[in-house]
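Risk register update: the risk that structure generation would not scale has been downgraded. Supporting records follow, first protein first.
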Amino acid sequence: MATSSESANTKFWTVEKEQILIDMWSQSACLFMISSPDYSGIGTRKYDAMQEIAQAMETTVDDIKKKMTSIRAAFNRARRSPPSGSASKKDEWLIKNLDFLNSSSGISRC
């Protein structure tokens, strides 16, 4: 059974808010570009980028981390789907909107 905070969190994440998160995420290379020195560093750039997103979306850094992990997992599943033409609209949306995870062109640093 879901707790009240889990239930509230589920209601928080609409498609529009997911799109805002993805847009902001795509602008912070330190959050996804493995070749970025700030990606695996112990420094605070990653945390600062997540905190900036969390403040803009009026939620916590922990919620942002969880949602990013969830979205990335769904994206990876969608990419591995068999090419039978049975991809859902959500899968197509994820593949289109998370394309920045596949390449590093046009990315700004944190």
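Supporting record for the second protein:
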Amino acid sequence: MTSNPQAQAPASLEVTAVLHALADPVRLHLVRQLSESDAAIACGRFDTPVAKSTLSHHFKILREAGIIATHREGGQSLNVLRTAEMEAAFPGLLRAILLRLGPRCVREEDAPDRALNTHQSREGL
């Protein structure tokens, strides 16, 4: 069963929500991967160093801002970048941000989960 990915999108994109969502390096990395893909990407197929629960939170922020849409197909949640909607609302914004990013916009040491786990292992927790 395939649902319409636009069904979850907000009626209008708010600049503050979009900028907040794109201010996080993990979310930028997810958006970058979607921008480089020719097809929707399943939630479990992203290259990211964060835990699954944290990743779900990042997808939620991106969805609520209207940057991505997620739809279920079979047993998977597939994500797509809402490029046309972003371009219509904020011409050139997404392209400008993506052009400024290097080949990898999230390093493992920048991910909150990894930093916490590294710190805890040093402290013997």
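Strands lie at 41-42, 68-73, 76-81. On this basis the risk owner (M.S.) recommends closing the item.
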